[in-house]
Amino acid sequence: MTEAVKGPASYFPSIEKKYGRPTAEWKEIIRSSPLTRHMELVSWLKTEHGLGHGHANALVAHTLSEDSGK
C-alpha cells in the first residue's frame, strides 16, 4: 500500500489535467523565469500562464524547495 501524496505535490495531478502540461514542464518554466521570489513567481504564473493561485503556489513552493535542496 502506498502513502497518499501530501503537500504541494498533491496538486500535481489536477494541475496537469487542467492546464495540459506535465509538472516537469511547469518546473522548467519557473526555473527559466528571471524572477526568484516566491510571490513574484506565483503572480507571474497567474498573469502570464493563467494558473489559479493554489496551483501556482504549489508549483513554486515545490520547485523552490527542490532547488534549495530541502
* Overall form: globular
Structural class: mainly alpha
Count all strands and give the number.
Answer: 0
- Helical proportion, percent range: 55-70%
Radius of gyration: 12 Å
Task: Determine the N-to-C terminus distance.
Answer: 26 Å
Features:
single chain; 70 residues; mainly alpha; 4 helices; 64% helix; globular
Summarize the helices and strands and which ones pair or pack:
Layout: H1 12-19, H2 23-32, H3 38-49, H4 53-67
What would you say this structure looks like, in words?
The model has no long low-confidence stretch (mean pLDDT 93). 64% of the residues lie in helices and 0% in strands. The protein has 70 residues and is mostly helical. The protein has helices at residues 12-19, 23-32, 38-49, 53-67.
What's this model, at a glance?
The protein is mostly helical. The chain contains 4 helices and no strands.
